[in-house]
Structures are given as C-alpha cells and as structure tokens.
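Format notes (please read before filing issues)

Several people have asked whether sequences and structure tokens are stored in separate files. They are not. Every record keeps both together, in the order shown below: the sequence lines, then the token lines. Line labels are part of the format and must not be stripped during preprocessing.
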Amino acid sequence: SLIGRLMFELPEEMGLIAVAVRQTQGKGRGGNVWLSPVGCALSTLHLSIPLHSNLGQRIPFIQHLVSLAVVESVRSIPGYEDIELRLKWPNDIYYSDLMKLGGVLVNSTLIETTFHILIGFGFNVNNSNPTICINDLIAKFNKEEGTELRPLSADCLIARTVTVLERLIEVFQEKGPNGVLPQYYKYWIHSGKQVRLWGEEGPPAWIVGIDDCGYLQVHQEGKGVESVHPDGNSFDMLRNLIIPK
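Then the structure lines:
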C-alpha cells in the first residue's frame, strides 16, 4: 500500500495517516478481506515506537491502546459517557457484548531500534447495515434517556481517536500497563466471564484480565492463572470458547 511505502521515507517526527472514504481492498486478521462501505470511519495510521521503551518492550499492547482510543473517542465526550461502546479482546469494538461495530489491525516492522507500526482501524459511525452503528446507539440512548445528543461524524471520531491514542501512548511510556489498564477494564466485556479452554468439551476457566504483554489471562480451577496468546487462539464470544486455531 502507498502508506506502507511512504512510512520509511518520512522524517521520524512526522506522523502519517490515511483516511478512506470507502475501501474495497482492505486486509483483516489472518488475511481476511476488510471492506468498508460509506459511513464507516476507516483509516491507517503510522507510528514509530522505540524498541527500548515501555511500549516497545510490549508491542502487542498497541492494539489494545488503539481499541481503547476508539471507545474513548466517543465516551470521553461530555454527555456521551454512557453510550454502550465496549472492547472485546484482542481487537474488536462492540455494542455492549452483543454486536461488533469495528476493529483494529496492527502490523509492526522492527528496523534497527525502532518499531514502525501501521495501525488500521475502522468502526461503523453512520451505516445501519449490516449490523448497527454508533449513531444508532446515540439515537437509542436519546430515546431511552430523553437526551438530545447530536450524531457524530466519522472525521471527528478519527481525529479524536488519534488524539486519545497519543495520550494513551504517553501514559503507557511513562507508567507501563498499569497506567492504562484501569481505563481498559472499565470498557471491556469480559469481566468475570467463564470460557472453555481448547474446545466445547474443554475445562472451564474464568477470564481474569490481560497480562503485561497484553495476552489474555484465564484462571483454571486448581491450575492457577495462565496467559492465552491471541494469534494461536480464536476467541469465539458467541460460543464462549478459547480454542487453538
């Protein structure tokens, strides 16, 4: 992609973002196709992260920071704090725990002592099909609560996401995971949920949180807490399984 080629030719301190009004050849996790109709906020952002920094040593965490930034882009606006936008580990944006509204994809390339990160994030702002969009959630909230919150625009939310992400990265670089995890847990959908390990007949385990590298921690009776790696597992919320891919 153009942004992938450009990112190595820019001065270090210059940021780069591409915003797609419509996308037809996007890439998702595991080579999935990621289409973006009009009404979605979709962009690719380039960041440089020093290897020998807090985040450089825990680079998988970046997808959680981006997911959190997307949710915060809405829920940090005065009046919009209770819009039911949430996080699903490792990289999805959800309406409550019911429906996916968006996602995040991160590619990192280490060159000498710097990670060059390409972050793709997309979320449905203003398109009621095929699932639900952020402005539907706002309309639903207005109806239930008698409020008059205005619909939001994709441009505004992309800009807010990038601003929030910069702040989250600063906090992470200064304080490490504990600087951002309380905020992350406030919005995630997994607290205290039970899952089955390795398949439908597998042993039950409870989700505890995420570890210092951003991997999921589960507690299995009599076994203690163990971490589950997102790339080796497909986390199927509908069947509540954590299974080897």
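For reference, the curators noted about this record: The chain has five helices and 14 strands. The chain has a mean pLDDT of 81.
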